[in-house]
Amino acid sequence: MSTYPAIACVFGNPIEQSKSPIIHSMFASQFNLPLQYQKRLAPSDGFALSADQFFADISCIGANVTMPFKLDALQWVDTLSSQAKRAGAVNTIIRQNNGFTGDNTDGVGLVNDLHQHNIAVNKANILMIGAGGAAKGALPALLDAGINSVAIYNRSVDKAQALVRHTNRYANSKARLYDSASVQVFDIVINATSLSLQNELPDLPDSVFVNQPSVYDMVYLNKPTVFMQKATSLGCTMAVDGLGMLVNQAAQSFYLWFGQRPSCEPVYLHLRDLNK
Predict the structure, then answer these.
(1) Has 70 been annotated as catalytic?
(2) Where are the domains of the chain?
(3) What secondary structure does DSSP assign to 250-266, as a single string?
(4) How far is the C-alpha of 20 from the C-alpha of 15, rounded, in Å?
(5) Residue 24, Cα to own-chain centre: how many angstroms?
(6) Residue 94 — very low, low, confident or very high, per pLDDT cuts 50/70/90?
């Protein structure tokens, strides 16, 4: 459901750093859509009221949701997509004729970016570093894409175990805890923590790179992250940061609102240039 000119936004706190207005404005221009896309700073305890006020305008067709409101959005919407149910979080709200649907496009964004870098996901054995919202949001789409298995590592073993249990409710026992006592072979290693923002590395042995897996860091900077540098130094030839995931998850949101799938590459290249 959409009216024109359409209005959308991204809710967050903080929100000034968000690149979503740039991304969605470039997407809209590909289709000559008169989209007005806003940043909305919501009070940390006031997401529901902020969403109520925004969507009171019938021209507001949808919203993106970033930290710390993905759980608040889960409670606010009327219905949930399969991705959102399994991820336990909502990052995209879509106005429908009968209310509001919550979806989670993070995992689809990750999988699409892996594909765009020619990283084979089907039948892959994956190491997921981190057990927070980023990891939980990514796993449903990875499993839908046909991975063989996922080992989960987190500094808090209890949190990792909880994510393994949650995932295996719908994953046919494909998830397990990472076992540091044995050398395991991985095809893809994904860093779903924010450690690279502090220039820190996960506390993992070099043996996780023994198979020279493709390496993905959800963080993006204006240079290769410390995690990417570590992987490259140990012989990994494919090391990718999370900028493409950001663009691809936004593209999926845009598709959910407008039914049109934008081209990601020009937006990705533009942001990469801005980030230099």
Answers:
(1) yes
(2) 7-104, 108-243
(3) HHHHHHHHHS-----HH
(4) 10
(5) 16
(6) very high
What average pLDDT does range 224-250 have in this prediction? 97
CATH of 108-243, one of 2.60.120.620, 3.40.50.720, 3.30.70.270, 3.40.50.970: 3.40.50.720
Q: What is the DSSP string of the chain?
A: ---SS-EEEEEESS-TT--HHHHHHHHHHHTT---EEEEEE--TT-HHHHHHHHHTSTTEEEEEE-TT-HHHHHHHSSEE-HHHHHHT--SEEEEETTEEEEE--HHHHHHHHHHHTT---TT-EEEEE--SHHHHHHHHHHHHTT-SEEEEE-SSHHHHHHHHHHHHTTSTT-EEE--TTS----SEEEE-SSGGGGT---S--GGGGTT--EEEES---SS--HHHHHHHHTT-S-EE-THHHHHHHHHHHHHHHHS-----HHHHHHHHHHT-
CB 63, CB 93: distance < 8 Å:
yes
Note whether 7-104 and 108-243 share their fold. Answer: yes
* pLDDT band per the 50, 70, 90 thresholds, residue 5: confident
Report the distance separating Cα 89 and Cα 16, nearest Å: 22
Residues in the chain: 276
Question: CATH fold of 7-104, please?
Answer: Rossmann fold (3.40.50)
- Pairing mode, if any, of strands 92-96 and 60-65? antiparallel
Q: Contact, 274 vs 264, CB < 8 A? A: no
Residue 1's pLDDT band, with cuts at 50, 70 and 90, is very low
Residue 173 is predicted with a pLDDT of 87
Structure confidence at residue 43 (pLDDT): 96
Q: Which of 19, 70, 174, 230 is catalytic?
A: 70
* pTM for this prediction: 0.93
